[in-house]
Backbone:
């Protein structure tokens, strides 16, 4: 391990300089020889490194999303060339090149942290052995050797013997209890981070070997941290535990605000977004506009959660637009086009008749009184005023026969007789 650490000796001077600068600040508050001053210096080093690695973390997220998108195509290639591994590798590389993705991009944050990690390990080993390194001189070295975190020296390890621990001014029990507790917390945080990724932020509609690989890593990484942790000094355990907690919090933020499409996290996010948009009637955050814009652009390729989101907006009288905004449709009808995009169209308003003036109403009433009564008078004529012959009872069928013979038409004028063919 010392050989590997010595390979990164070129960065030990910058790392030790950063630690010393933070120690100067915290030493004025807690005292220069306390574990709080040196421990918080290591924690601050981690935070500074992780802030600088945020662009790489964003690139890692994009690479991971791109790899998840390519999983169906990768599975087809594996099934098509399952007996030809060389052709399978060639097709995979061709797919990566066409899509512009790189499988190693998801490992960038870990790879970028490695030099700092090994440099810190080299610095703490120098403190344990009493050797000055970087900008840590004799006085700083003596101060660091006196620093204890809950009774365990910064440079002590779980596997150190009683003589080494006593030389650092501590007991073997304190060192092993503190290091064991930190190893457990480090492994648990790593397991929770990976489990959170698998259970909430993975597209459950696609079953690929990538998911099986991630499940395996969920159990392998914690075991690796536990095995290697017994060889790490307490200061390195502080470093690694801090970076694990940072990763866990950073991932929780990403899963909550930018989840993977088709995952459970997306379902929960769109449910919150629906409540927010329907309550306020608009989108206020740029990130929300970006997600709505992507959903609208998918059209018919939307997943189940995205379709529910669009339908919920329609029921609330809102319509998602191509630019990521939503518009109210209180006086508009929402129409869904062939590509699945909801667009508002103006509704046809009913025209109310104009109200007439008093003089116009009087004129209309007067014209109605002067109209001649024609058919109404005939229909309203009392039956008693009809001729007596019409009221006389007739034999069954006689009236019908006589009318048929005379060519008369019931209730109307007589039908003219047609001229004889002769």
Residues:
């Amino acid at each position: 391990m010392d050989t590997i650490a010595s390979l990164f000796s070129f960065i030990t001077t910058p790392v030790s300089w950063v630690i010393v600068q933070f120690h100067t600040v915290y030493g004025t508050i807690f005292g220069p020889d306390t574990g709080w001053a040196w421990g918080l210096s290591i924690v601050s080093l981690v935070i500074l490194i992780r802030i600088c690695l945020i662009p790489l973390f964003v690139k890692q997220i994009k690479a991971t999303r791109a790899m998840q998108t390519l999983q169906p195509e990768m599975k087809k290639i594996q099934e098509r060339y399952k007996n030809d591994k060389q052709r399978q590798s060639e097709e995979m590389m061709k797919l990566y090149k066409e899509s512009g993705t790189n499988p190693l991009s998801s490992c960038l944050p870990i790879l970028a942290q490695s030099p700092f990690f090994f440099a810190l390990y080299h610095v703490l080993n120098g403190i344990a052995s009493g050797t000055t390194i970087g900008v840590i001189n004799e006085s700083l070295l003596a101060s660091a050797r006196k620093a204890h975190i809950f009774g365990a020296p910064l440079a002590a390890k779980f596997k150190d013997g009683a003589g080494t621990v006593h030389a650092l001014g501590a007991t073997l029990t304190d060192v092993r209890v503190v290091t064991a507790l930190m190893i457990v917390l480090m492994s648990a945080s790593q397991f929770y981070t990976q489990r959170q990724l698998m259970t909430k932020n993975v597209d459950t509609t696609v079953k690929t070997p990538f998911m099986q690989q991630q499940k395996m890593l969920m159990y392998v990484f914690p075991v690796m941290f536990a095995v290697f942790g017994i060889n790490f000094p307490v200061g390195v355990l502080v470093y690694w535990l801090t970076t694990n907690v940072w990763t866990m919090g950073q991932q929780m933020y990403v899963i909550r605000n930018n989840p993977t499409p088709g995952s459970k996290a997306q379902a929960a996010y769109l449910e919150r977004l629906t409540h927010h948009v329907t309550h306020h009637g608009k989108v206020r955050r740029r990130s929300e506009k970006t997600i709505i814009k992507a959903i609208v652009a998918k059209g018919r390729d939307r997943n189940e959660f995205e379709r529910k989101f669009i339908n919920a907006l329609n029921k609330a009288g809102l319509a998602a637009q191509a630019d990521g905004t939503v518009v109210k449709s209180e006086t508009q009808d929402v129409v869904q086009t062939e590509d699945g995009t909801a667009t508002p169209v103006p509704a046809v308003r009913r025209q109310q008749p104009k109200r007439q003036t008093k003089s116009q109403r009087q004129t209309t009433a007067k014209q109605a009184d002067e109209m001649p009564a024609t058919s109404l008078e005939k229909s309203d004529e009392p039956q008693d005023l009809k001729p007596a012959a019409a009221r006389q009872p007739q034999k069954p069928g006689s009236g019908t026969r006589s009318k048929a013979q005379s060519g008369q038409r019931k209730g109307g004028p007589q039908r003219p007789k047609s001229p004889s063919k002769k």
